[in-house]
Amino acid sequence: SLSIKDKQDLKNYFYKNYLGLPYDEQFLWNNYDDKGQEKLYCSEFITKLLNKFLIEQINTLPMDYSENIPFWSNYFNGDIPQGLPGVTPSTFFNHPSFFQIN
């Protein structure tokens, strides 16, 4: 768990580095807009934010869009970023720093 100091550091780090960044609908790691701002999708944002504070870093894996190909093909206009590095919600589920709370 994070200490009070760590929680304040996390909050400050968020405000300084991530507040207001655009959403990345392309789900690409290290994707930037025309203003040079990094675009982030949800899992990427959480990973990059928390990696600053985690002892065991969250690593990217090749993204797999092989399930429901028609949906992804339509979503990405036929240019599916199959195999490019990224993270998904399952990345957190499988990472030793996270656990389920019931």
Concise summary:
It contains 4 helices and 4 strands. With 102 residues, it is mainly alpha-helical. The chain is globular, with a radius of gyration of 15 Å.
Q: How would you sum up this structure, described in words?
A:
The protein is mainly alpha-helical and 102 residues long. Helices cover 35% and strands 8% of the residues. It contains four helices and four strands; from the N terminus they run αββαβαβα. The protein has helices at 4-17, 42-51, 69-75, 89-93; strands spanning 31-32, 38-39, 61-62, 85-86. Strands 1-2 form a two-stranded antiparallel sheet. Strands 3-4 form a two-stranded antiparallel sheet. A hairpin with a 5-residue loop joins strand 1 and strand 2.
SSE arrangement:
Blueprint: H1 4-17, E1 31-32, E2 38-39, H2 42-51, E3 61-62, H3 69-75, E4 85-86, H4 89-93
Antiparallel strand pairs: 1-2, 3-4
How do the helices and strands follow one another from N- to C-terminus? Answer: HEEHEHEH
Strands ordered across the widest β-sheet: 1-2
Largest sheet features = 2 strands, antiparallel
Q: Oligomer, anyone?
A: single chain
For the termini, the CA-CA separation is: 17 Å
The coarse overall form would be globular
Structural class: mainly alpha
Mean pLDDT: 92
In total, how many beta strands? 4
The proportion of strand residues reads 5-15%
List unreliable stretches of 5+ residues.
Answer: none
Which percent range fits the helix content? 25-40%
Rg, please? 15 Å
